[in-house]
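Chain entry —
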Amino acid sequence: MDKKKYLITSALPYANGYIHLGHIAGAYLPADIFVKYKRLKKEDVIFICGSDEHGTAIEISALKEKVTPKEIIDRYHFANKRAFEELGIEFDIYSRTSNEIHHKTSQEFFLNLYNKNLLIKKSEKQLYSEKDKKFLADRFVEGTCPICGYEEARGDQCESCGSNLSPLELINPKSKISGDTPVIKESINFYFPLEKFQKKLEDWISQKTNWKYNVKNYCEGWFKTGLKDRAITRDLEWGVKVPLEGYEGKVIYVWFEAPIGYISATKELFIQRGNPEKWKEYWCDENTKLIHFIGKDNIVFHALVFPAMLMAHGEYILPDNVPANEFLNLEGGKLSKSKGHGILVKDVVKEYNPDLVRYVVASNLPENKDSDLSIDDFKIKNNNELAGILGNFINRTVVFAKNKFNNKIPARQNNESEILKTIKTQADIIEKCYESFRFRDALNETMNIARIANKFFNDMEPWNVIKTDVNKCGEIINDCLNICYSLAIAIYPILPFTSKKILKILNETDTELDWNKIGNINLKENRELGENEILFPQIENNNTTEDKEMEEEISITEFQKIKIKIAKVITCEKIPNSKKLLKLKIKIGDKEKQIVAGIAEHYLPDELIGKSIVVVSNMKKTKLMGIDSEGMLLAAKKDDKLVLLSTDKPIDDGADVN
């Protein structure tokens, strides 16, 4: 019987922006954790990802910046690749859909369906710019919204009222490229017959008893509405060209060719490894488990559309599972690349230990419903859990061995250990969590090893035992050091950098980690330990990059640019779905402004109405949770206490603070 193989994919991130923690929680960290776990189990696994680099959004970005699409995709491809690496996410290949092998693979896939007469031709009315000499895709058109009258509505959506639109619905449409008024012309495009595959998809998904409820429920919703045929080509220049004569100026729709990127990237991987045909052993072998890690906004493509494409093509395996996650919110607001609300990976890894970032995200994974991440989580999780539980056990064990056993692994009396048996049983519990894609549970059960270990250390009281029985104490510390080794294995999927540090402390850097060694006696007696280090130093303050910049010295001229004034609070209310934010309307002299401030945990709205406060009045307007904020109030904070700055005597609002 052929050995089971795992083909793991993470959704291809779109190369028009930087990766943020919402993306990481949805598609990348869960996949990386699963892959690392499977590799500890010595399974045959390949992990595929890459940049999605076609589509109108990239062309629009290029037009705005007056650069080529290639410059846009290069910027974000390499930046995001580096961000993944800094976070310890290890793909076998991080490819890109602009590569020649992807274009060729997508065109071959298209021709396979075309030659089977599966594709449907449809003639449609579209907007055409005589000046630009091209059909205008939806995002290349701007006009007045027919619903609300907003004059800068896009051809696919009105950003003012949120209505979905088509370019033909816009009033007074204009080309975003040249400003030309387009005319209506007929254009022929190909459609994929998704409706034809509904019954087959329903039968296939009905057998998926191990799929997440939220994923199956989402698919059933689409089935109830009824699947509709989808355009497979469109009139654009940037993308994979349609490989048919007479269809110049058309590309394969990005929704269709992007998932084919998983196949083309696998081909590329094995070309790099010198075995160009081996990709088929993964994509065309029924012993392979294809697992797509995605966010919920991608369920329709990975659980319905791409499987239908694979069914239509033939030869390829279908997904074994699509363990989609919901959305990770920040302080109650949805993380959004387009709205600039989120924490970018490239920034957060400069502020925090990457394993702390992995731990915070893993502990907040939105596995079955949306979850909420707070900036305070970094300090709390670091100090209370990673330092207080995991780091504490490693440190106290190693320090004891160093001080009482000459920095060596003490000898043991026998090869039986009840505590190590308990640790092995705990590993079985963690394994079941991983196999069912319950990563938050896996994290908690992994930390339970450290909790069990700390309790064992406390209960055994080696500091007392050594006074009367050195050999027995040595066995206790031997057990504890072997638990440290087991922890290095168990935490590796979530905390890979810390795992390596523990091995270095144990002087076991050349050891190949193996899940099955958890709970075993792995360390050789009387061998010297390495140098100890504090794995997770306490975080005293949650300093951000902005805080650090403010600590730098500035000149009096720079300070004079900051306008600090007295303001009177007119109204104040809580912001829905946020634990920390209040919305204040303030009066500064004859002007009224709106401020969003993170003080809801310290003040009730009614307390602030009528209060005179100190504000920076000339801050640039920004958005928090989609709400405009036109200033910044000033407060004093130490630890968990926060007090707003105000005046000790009455003074009119609008007064300058000098």
Summary: Residues 615 and 634 are 6 Å apart (CA to CA). The radius of gyration is 29 Å. The chain has four domains: 5-117+252-334, 120-192, 375-517, 553-644.
